[in-house]
Amino acid sequence: MNPSTLSSKKTGQVSKSKLRRRKQLKPYKELPQNQTPSKCRVCGNPAIGYHYGAPSCNGCKIFFRRVIVTGRKIVCPKDNNCFYGIEVLDMSKRICRACRLKKCLEVGMNALAIEAEAISDEGKALRDELMRGKDSIAVVSSLIVTEEDLLDRTIRKLKLIETKIEPLHRAGVPPGYRDVRHLEKILDAPVTLNISDIPNLKLCSHPCTLGNSTYRKPVNYAHSSFLAAIESSKMFDFSSKIDLDSKVALMKHTTVICSNMMNAYFSMNEMKSDVLLYPDGSHIEPSTGDVKLLQKTLFSFLNNKVDNIEYLLLKAIMMCNPAVHGINLEDQKTIEIERNRIMKSLLSYSLFQHGNLHGPSRVAEILALAPIIENQSKHQKDFHVYLNAKHFQEHLNQGQLVRKCISYSYDGILES
Known about the structure:
This protein has 15 helices and four strands. It is an all-alpha fold. It folds into two domains: 13-142, Erythroid Transcription Factor GATA-1, Chain A, CATH 3.30.50; 147-414, Retinoid X Receptor (Orthogonal Bundle). The strands form two sheets. A two-stranded antiparallel sheet has the order 1-2. Strands 3-4 form a two-stranded antiparallel sheet. α6 runs antiparallel to α8 and α6 (147-171) crosses α13 (329-367).
């Protein structure tokens, strides 16, 4: 037989064997989002990818492979804790090889993922020994939480919350009905995600006939949008840890803010519009006030091309505001812990999307939207107080001392 034919046949068999082994071992598929990791789990320096089942740099990858292939016995001259308390190793200094191998195994590096055969009996024995302890290594590896894991969990949770409140946000309170609950009652009740499940939703027996009746349409949609923001707050971790007074103070400040952000992103992303729209697709009437004022948040989202994840993270940051007046000191600390975690997720996401060079500046751009959104909320509250005073005076002129159709929580939030 031709030697070249034999050679090609042998090469084909080897390549098929390698391909089969690669199909069996794809631990990186189980890691979050299958993205390039930020740092090596062994030494803490920048990683270049997933090697042998764990995020690692090139140096740790080569070290692990060499030790497994040669099977050389390594002993720590100290107490097997040379890496204790060190997050990032100085690679310019001499590193304990035994502790480095121990760390490789702890973070999940798999000896079977190495395609090269052991070149000695010691190498084969070492590989067999490591595989016998595979179960305990897997347990240790599962307990290690990386920045990628935290980001993935945060995004999943925020997306779930948004999915749950979206029907409530879009529904709108039925025309002619009023929600007689106060904010305290809403916050103290279980999560309500459907308009039909709202208790004490009453029909206005004598609807107000003064002024422009079309004003009730934005009020109906705004109230359901407010409810969506309030109900979403109950699904954050801090909600079950702070007292009712702190919840009320927080939501009086953040409800309008989060509602505006939902309205803006809905118009931009769902309706593909560069102007603010109601959930039914209709435009805001000029009679509802200064339309430009109501669209500041939308314009800031459009100008900065805010994506879905950035929107969710920024809204969560605005929700978790420990600086709101009326929140006690202990509750401030609780809220601040959750906010810091979300801020860290925003930084991680920006670094993944825009790289180490442009990631931090993208975080600054997103956080710079906060004052714009806050100012819109403040101006809306001022405008609402003006409208209510004007409307009440019209009632007085007609000899009517009671406003007929009102939602207490809606007015309570806007008059705070």
